[in-house]
Design a protein that fits this description.
single chain; mainly beta
């Protein structure tokens, strides 16, 4: 059974940093990604990474502040978030699939709240 378990969220102040983790069990995936959903808004893409291409992709809103990475030995995905802004407040979810454009498994979210 495939499971993606996200953790690491919390309440921080603007300018602080957080690192989210997504532990994957059951199988490995080529592509993994982070998405977020703020209250009253649609889910949006944050960042993605692919084993086969070695590529990473970021939403313009987080470029230069967030870094996506993965530990193959631990089968865990990370999102290092620096210089957090109030507009980064959202529920962050991890996802996995065969390629960046196709996410087939989703984990539960972890809440990130950034106060001004």
């Amino acid at each position: 059974q495939v499971q993606l378990v996200a953790s690491g969220g919390g309440l921080v102040q603007a300018g602080d940093s957080l690192r989210l983790s997504c532990a994957v069990s059951g199988r490995t995936f080529n592509a993994m990604a982070w998405f977020r959903q703020a209250p009253g808004k649609e889910r949006e893409f944050v960042a993605a990474t692919s084993w086969t291409s070695g590529s990473t992709n970021y939403a313009d809103s987080v470029k230069g502040r967030f870094t996506i990475s993965r530990d193959g030995a631990k089968n865990t995905l990370y999102l290092q978030m620096n210089s957090l802004k109030p507009e980064d407040t959202a529920v962050y979810s991890c996802a996995a699939g065969p390629n960046i454009a196709t996410m087939t498994y989703w984990g539960q979210g972890t809440q990130v709240t950034v106060s001004s």
